[in-house]
């Protein structure tokens, strides 16, 4: 990566430190954002998301995603990215009706 940016590794590390971050944090943030965007597309399988993000296997991707978001990729997709406490506002599964007030 430093060669693509035409800077030395030490310069890249120093500049990232000046911004209060590390290459690993930047990479993790990018991967998390990409994973979320891909998981919002129901036509892409979770296995394909893992492969697209260069994870060797689905298990490694699932562990990383849960570390980032607190939800498994399947849970995230099921709740469409809403935190678990938002489930109380959802209508009961399978009812097909919304709460009418």
How would you describe the overall organization of this protein?
With 101 residues, the protein is mainly alpha-helical. 52% of the residues lie in helices and 0% in strands. Residues 86-101 have low confidence and may be disordered.
Write a brief structural summary.
By secondary structure, this protein is mostly helical. Helices cover 52% and strands 0% of the residues.
Radius of gyration: 18 Å
Average of pLDDT: 82
Strand-pairing-aware structural class: mainly alpha
Distance between the termini: 56 Å
Element pattern in H and E: HHHHH
Could you estimate the helical fraction of the residues in percent?
Answer: 40-55%
Main sheet: strands, sense, barrel = none
Shape, per Cα inertia axes: elongated
Number of strands: 0
**How many H/I helices?**
5
Poorly predicted sequence stretches spanning 5 or more consecutive residues:
86-101
Strand residues, percent: under 5%
Provide the descriptors you would attach to this structure in a database record.
101 residues; mainly alpha; 5 helices
Topology:
Blueprint: H1 9-18, H2 23-39, H3 46-52, H4 58-69, H5 73-79
């Amino acid at each position: 990566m430093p060669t693509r940016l035409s800077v030395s590794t030490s310069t890249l590390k120093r500049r990232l430190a000046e911004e209060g971050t590390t290459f690993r944090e930047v990479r993790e943030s990018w991967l998390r954002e990409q994973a979320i965007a891909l998981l919002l597309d129901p036509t892409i399988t979770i296995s394909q998301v893992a492969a697209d993000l260069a994870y060797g296997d689905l298990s490694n991707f699932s562990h990383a995603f849960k570390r980032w978001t607190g939800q498994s990729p399947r849970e995230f997709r099921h709740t469409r990215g809403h935190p678990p406490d938002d489930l109380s506002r959802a209508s009961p599964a399978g009812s097909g009706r919304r709460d009418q007030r």
